[in-house]
Every structure is written in structure tokens, then in C-alpha cells.
Amino acid sequence: MKNGRISKGGLPLVLFGLLPLMDSAPAGAHGAPDAGGTPSEIVQARITKQPNIQGLNAMILDAPRPGILLSYRGDTPLTVLGTQDEAFLRFTGKTVMVNTDSPSWQALPNAPALSGAPGEESDRWATLSQSTSFGWLDPRLAAMENMHHREPEHQSWSITLQTASGETAMIAGELRRRTLP
Q1: For residue range 91-109, what is the model confidence (pLDDT) as tens digits?
Q2: Which of 47, 48, 40 shows the shortest CA–CA distance to 64?
Q3: Domain coordinates in residue numbering, the chain
Q4: Residue 149: is its pLDDT beyond 70?
Q5: Close Cβ partners of 72 (under 8 Å, ≥ 6 residues apart)
Q6: Phi and psi (nearest 5°) for 113?
Q7: What share of the chain is helix, strand, coil (3-state, %, to 5)?
Q8: In the 8-state DSSP scheme, what is residue 146?
Q9: CB-CB neighbours of 4 under 10 Å
Q10: String of b and e for 28-54 (b: at least 16 CB within 10 Å)?
């Protein structure tokens, strides 16, 4: 740029950069295209009760099928019990491990591939994550998917946790249907 003017060589580059913006205006003026096969409603999950466990944080992952994300930075292991009250996930405060024999793990639709490194305790525990967090599509958060419209508008869910001392605590919440516009 010289004396506040665009050089002749830069003008085509500037105009080329503006072309996508000019082209999108007519398409945007007509709204989004109709999409077939969209659901008429979705299931939303929310947490209504979290245990007072130092270092634990739970969060709902909003998606067409809700999931849950747990983060644990405690000093002693915390075990998530599965749908059959079996040991499912173990948060150590530094890693997340999975019980590969757990029916909940075996039925998980978004189960990541494991590196094959068994845990230290036994062959059934494998390292799942080298972080303090893990999120998954827990079937307890999708219970309304199989319900018919004449059933209640909302229902409760819970996930049981077990501390290193054997005490249990629960993360609880509710599922609600929400009609889409």
C-alpha cells in the first residue's frame, strides 16, 4: 500500500477474498434447506444431584443422545458402577481405567479402542485415558428413547459411584422430552 491506495497487484487478491462473502448472501436470504428425517423431539438430560466428593465434577454432554462427562482429581480411586452394579470405570485422579469384563463397557456404543495395556491390578482393568476425565453415552441417560409418547414427560436417572472405602454415592438427574420447532 502506498499513499493510502491499494496497489494494482493487490486488488485482485482482495476481490477474490470477498467473493465467498458475496456468494453466500443469496443463499442465506432463503433460510436453511428442509432436511428430511429430522426427529420431532429430543431427550434432554440434566443433573439434579451431585455427591460431595472432593475433586469430582460431572457434566451432561448435550447431543441427540445425551452423554455424561466425569472429571475426578481426587487422591483415592473412585469407581463408577455400571448398569448391573458392576465395576465399570475407575478414576484414579491421574488416569481413567475400564473394567473390560464389564457388561456396561461391552455394550457401550462409543467405546474407544484400547491400547491393549492391561492395568496393574489384573488383566480386566485397562487404561482408558491418561487424563482425569472421560465422557460416554451411558444408557441410563437414554432411557426415554424407547418410551412411547403417552408415557410421562420426564423420568429420573442415576449413576452410582463407589469410593475407595466402599461407600456409595449417586449422581442423579432427570430426562425430559423437548419438542423441536
Answers
A1: 999 999 999 999 999 888 7
A2: 40
A3: 41-179
A4: no
A5: 53, 55, 56, 57, 78, 91, 93, 132, 133
A6: -70, 140
A7: 15, 40, 45
A8: G
A9: 5
A10: eeeeeeeeeeeeeebbbbeeeebbebe
